[in-house]
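Standup notes
- HV: blocked on the assembly model, inputs below
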Amino acid sequence: MSELLKVSDLRVRYPVAGGMASVLDRNRRSHVDVVHGVSLNIERGETLAIVGESGSGKTTLAMALCGLAPVLGGEVRFDGMALSKNKDGYLQPDRRRIALMLQDPVGSLSPRMTVRKLLGEPFRIYPELSDDPDRSALEVLSMVGLSADFADRYPHQLSGGQARRVGLARALAQKPDLLIADEPTAGLDVSIQGEVLNLLSDLQQELGLGIMIITHNLNVVRHVAEQMAIMYLGRFLEQGLSELVFQRPRHPYTAALLAANPSTNPDAVPKRIDLTGEVPSLLQRPNGCEFHTRCPRVQAECRERFPDRESINGKQAWNCFHALP
Amino acid sequence: MTAPVLDIRDLSVSYDTDRGLLRALRNINIPISPGRIVGIVGESGCGKSTLISAIIRLLAPNAQIDGGSILFKENDLLALDPEAMRALRGVEISMVFQDPMTSLNPVMTIGRQMTDIQYRDNRSKAEKLARATRLLERVGIADPAEQLNRYPHHLSGGMRQRVAIAMALMTEPALLIADEPTTALDATLEVQIIHRLQQLQRDFGCAILFISHHLGVIAELCDEVVVMYAGEIVESGATRDVFLTPRHPYTRKLLECDPARIEKATRNLPVIAGKLPDLVDLPDGCVFRTRCDVSIELCASERPPLEGGDHCTACHVTGQ
């Protein structure tokens, strides 16, 4: 396998308007670090899952990689080449080669265009991809398992699952090397969720895509992703081979997440790890390890500095002074 | 058994569309006893949202009630005049929505919002604030008095949802409707909300109607579960019975499809083949027939009745 995407210490910072006082006094202007030093690798044909709750920075990371959010620092290499930034700090990837499948399936499709037109657009933007945009649009439509009947429908005439398939078809139309799928199954029912995920896996095998999948559904991660990363307040607290992480989580947050996953067996006696306290605001990022305010294993040093990375042969890595054995 | 706090009887609702009458709910029966937590599961399009809208009488203008009644404390909600209905909403029947960021007003402090919704009460502002503080404490928010001065964006997702729950419980309603309240949260916060709801249910004694398509959450939280498919109830009963010995082929498939149940990692997840029937042009017989593995001739001609006492199923084959 060959390396497709390599991200080193990526940072995204947004300014925060602090009301009238900050307009009058420039020194009072503040900011939030939404992505706070993230590193990752994705190889061709491989899936990386990014897990974390809403607000942990998953979507911002995806947007930054697509050149839709300004980058404060760090390096991104795509297919061996470092991506340049424009003067405002946005990365400038080849947008044909990195496709983004947005979270809201209906909202991300123009309501005034038919499916045929929506799917023909990538071919009009990149004429080198096809001589006949209409025919190619129908081809990608059948690739995601929708019949030609759907070509003349408008987005509001599609169900959630169908709209997702159209979103996926549109992302695939541009023949990307990397697909970033932001919550591709959120709001979908279990049976349709299976369909969308199987489709992603099949197409990945066929086309050799690298996939970055953003989700907060742990049950999905175990089945579709070789690699996973646990994101919390803009940082990866733990990352590595999904198999290893599920088997033996090292970071207390990962352990709590895995233990919290509710089971469909009503007789199951869950071994929960109780977390106390609230998720801190990004505006008041805690000192030291961000997780210390809720961590059951917290010690004095956790409040003072962020722990260094520890890893086993690069297959699983975590940042914690008091990792689980 | 005590009289149900909410008793949905033989409810049918349809929408008037360009293509004809879309029959969104057909002959729904759900009794909810006081203090019980009842979960509704089903895929999108099965009628969950129509059902909630019918209960709180906020159906879309093109909807019509084809029959049945919704008894709340023995009064038919469908027969109430708008004035009387408004007096119930948010007082006797409260609701928690899916996304707390959009259900809370972003430009008002938590305290302002929590006192505003007490507009019906003839109390001083200080009393209203004190009540808001008490409620925030009950839902497990640290430093409640301090939080009243903050705006929704200052709070984390889990806190916002607990504020929404506190607001819904402010009037000690007899029925709380929760529409997928944990979808936006990570697993640790999800179980936190579930346990908080269980605790609050015990303290306040209200009944909860909990809508979700997360099967694990339903299994952990609810006493009873109702499985809906294409506008009908296909199975209902105690959560334990339905999850451990599912009877309807649809329930069985739904459970089989849940990736959490599949021990070994697989790239080939099970799915339910086929698609939902067209609700404008309903097929004869059983609605699930076209996707079912065990259907017999009878299924094509006759709609199976929902039968079976405490654990009901609507199936000609597995229902016996």
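- HV (later): unblocked. The domain at 6-92+171-313 of chain B is CATH 3.40.50.300 (Rossmann fold). Residues 111 and 148 of chain B are 4 Å apart (CA to CA).
- Next: hand off to the docking folks.
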